[in-house]
Design a protein that fits this description.
The protein is an alpha+beta fold. The chain folds into two domains: 2-105, no CATH class; 109-248, Jelly Rolls, CATH 2.60.120.1440. The chain has helices at residues 2-20, 28-37, 41-63, 83-96; strands at 109-113, 119-124, 129-132, 137-141, 144-152, 154-158, 168-171, 174-188, 191-203, 210-213, 216-221, 224-229, 243-248. Strands 1, 2, 3, 4, 5, 6, 7, 8, 9, 10, 11, 12 and 13 form a 13-stranded mixed β-sheet that branches. β7 and β8 form a beta hairpin. α1 (2-20) packs parallel to α4 (83-96). The protein is elongated. The two termini are 28 Å apart.
């Protein structure tokens, strides 16, 4: 029974991968409803997506003559639970499109929005959380979930720190890089406001970087950047209220 259940889930996940890869796809509410319907759906969807990514990359390398078939590196092994059916389905889908899978047409960066008046929490696969205030929007790169762009509004970032792969938030041309952190970013009409509740954040890392620690922040406008002092425990206080959770890669 478990094998049958796994096979059925693989079929559903692969179907969504192909459907969302179509530029004309517009059933995002249906897709998110499926992702949130069961805790096993998102992990399986992302596992199959990763396996397809690796398969496409390997085929493209072979087609370009970058590696010889006899010495080609094996693609990252998909979880055993994916099963034989999924492996065959992936191979078939890749073969049909000659190494340029329909899946590749999906825009790799994708936007997540919170409806006005309703906060939303995004759980990233690498362990970080992004909490969006109502009416806010953030863009995440499917190929590198350690980079997020705040397009509008306000968001609280609780980062799973990795010194070798720091989490980066982009606001316009400005970059914020975590140093083991929980921090809030609000995009304004002429700049941004950053406040740190835990750890530290580097504003515009480089020779002139500004290091902010808990209880500190900056206000950046067209006129310049000003350091500010904040109440660490009050950072992100807008989060109080009802949250809608979703998983992201």
């Amino acid at each position: 029974m478990m094998a049958q259940d796994d096979t059925a889930l693989d079929a559903q996940a692969l179907d969504w991968i192909v459907r969302t890869g179509d530029p004309a796809f517009d059933d995002w509410p249906g897709f998110m409803a499926w992702m949130e319907a069961d805790p096993t759906h998102a992990p399986r969807y992302h596992a199959l997506s990763a396996a397809i990514d690796d398969g496409v990359a390997s085929l493209r390398a072979l087609q370009a003559g970058a590696v010889a078939p006899s010495i080609a590196k094996p693609a990252r092994r998909a979880p055993q639970r994916i099963g034989r059916w999924a492996g065959g389905a992936i191979a078939a889908s890749l073969a049909v499109v000659a190494g340029l899978s329909v899946y590749e047409r999906r825009p790799q960066p994708y936007a997540v929005e919170a409806a006005p008046g309703a906060a939303r929490t995004i759980l990233l696969a690498e362990g970080s959380r992004i909490m969006l205030a109502g009416g806010s929007c953030v863009t995440i790169d499917r190929r590198d979930a350690r980079i997020a762009t705040l397009d509008r509004g306000e968001a609280m970032f609780v980062v799973a720190h990795d010194a070798a792969d720091p989490f980066e938030v982009r606001v316009g041309e400005t970059r914020l890089v975590d140093v083991g952190t929980a921090f809030d970013v609000k995009r304004t009409s002429d700049g941004m406001r950053v406040a740190v509740s835990e750890g530290a954040v580097d504003y515009d890392p480089g020779p002139n970087a500004i290091r902010m620690t808990a209880g500190q922040g900056v206000v950046a406008t067209r006129g310049g950047v000003m350091r500010i002092t904040v109440e660490a425990t009050a950072v992100g206080s807008w989060r109080e209220g009802r949250l809608a959770f979703e998983n992201a890669p």
